[in-house]
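Field: sequence (string)
Field: structure_tokens (string)

Example rows 1 and 2, in order.
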Amino acid sequence: MEKRKLTAKDLALIICFSALYTILCFIPAFPIVGLSGAAITFASIIAPIIGIVLGPYLAVLSTTFGGTLGLFFASPFSPPSFAAGITSAFMAGMLLKNKKALCILTYLLLLSLFGLYPFTGPIWIYPQFMWFQIIGFLILMSPLQSKALNIIRKNSQDNSNYIKLSLAFFTIFLISSLAGQIAGSLTYETLFIFVLNPNSWLPTWIGLTWVYPVERIIITASATVIGVPLYKVLKSSNLIHY
């Protein structure tokens, strides 16, 4: 495993992104169906960006710290959003480090635990719900993900290939965002398995089947618009070390 000392720049970035993440926990983007008062916040947009800037491990630290403050003080921010943000940041960082095998294992494990969750998992009730999550897994498994990584490594400072670079980041962010969505949904299942009436899970999964893909695409597109120029600036300033 590659090891390096934590620098003052790293600490500054962790503090800045943790603070930004906490602030964005207060701003709702989409309501969470079935969880009154809670929402997917704008922190979900910045989470994968933190992953590509800080790397997977520091990003987990940053989103955990910022998310913990969000749980205590930001009413729209919920435990599912907390789990989703950490997972999304971790996956984005790992994908950029070319840890594809670990990402595949993590994604598949989350997908299996979520889909096969006792009594409430979509596989038992409404397997069609998982169609977009499966597409994300197929993209992760395909050469498309590896090609996206190569484009980022070769063209991060080439303004002439900005569209190609944006599509590459879109691919990375989409996989990361979907992994976060699965982790958040798994957390939701765990919290409410004994609270919700068993008959209420079917309309929940049916109602979300076409909602969450739209949310993920919007989140991914927003992260790409913000993340690409930010990555280029930080890379040129030697603030990204991996």
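Row 2 begins here:
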Amino acid sequence: MLKVRDLNVYYGGIHAIRGIDIDVNKGEIVTIIGSNGAGKSSMLNAISGIVKYQGQIEYEGKALPQVAHKVVQSGICQVPEGRVIFANLTVHENLKMGAYLRNDTKAINEDFGKVYDLFPRLKEREKQIAGTLSGGEQQMLAMGRGLMSSPELILLDEPSLGLAPLLINTIFEIIKEIKSMGKTILLVEQNAFKALSVADEAYVLEQGVITAKGKAADLIKDPKIQEAYLGKK
């Protein structure tokens, strides 16, 4: 579904992503784990057309345009790190913004129902100003807004960042539910244990380079991964 080959990202003289290759197959959760500053968000931003890159990114067999709104129109959405909601708009208005590039009114209304089924708390607060939501609710809103673009591939950037442990469990249960809806997910996450627990495939990114890859169920048992990312010795 998504094929990344020899991806390089530069910020001036800084070589943030160094020739990485990644494959994401339809219907899977693929996770990228790594420490802060490893280049995980830069990789997602390149796929989303937010930052310029060198290399090849193909989606459904075609070269992906390096223009953000065209990437969304192709069927890819990114839920950014830090949630980045429209704080002065209501919950419902935020979700509506997710469907900004769509004109299929009937399907949009159906997707509102699906999002509210997936996030009942958002339905309870649909008229509430988004900036007054809790951190966990804002994360749910950001994910719901992404789903309103009707994507086939969802890029999740640090969805558990800053959340309490109980809410982290809830978010990862929702990620599994989104997969069961037929969506494909590329998940960037510092919580390596949670990420590897829900993913099918996994990559380890260190200083812009892929240092390990394989089945998530295998990597979670790897002693080196356990020591570096899971706090086990």
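free_text_note (row 2): The first helix runs from residue 40 to 47.
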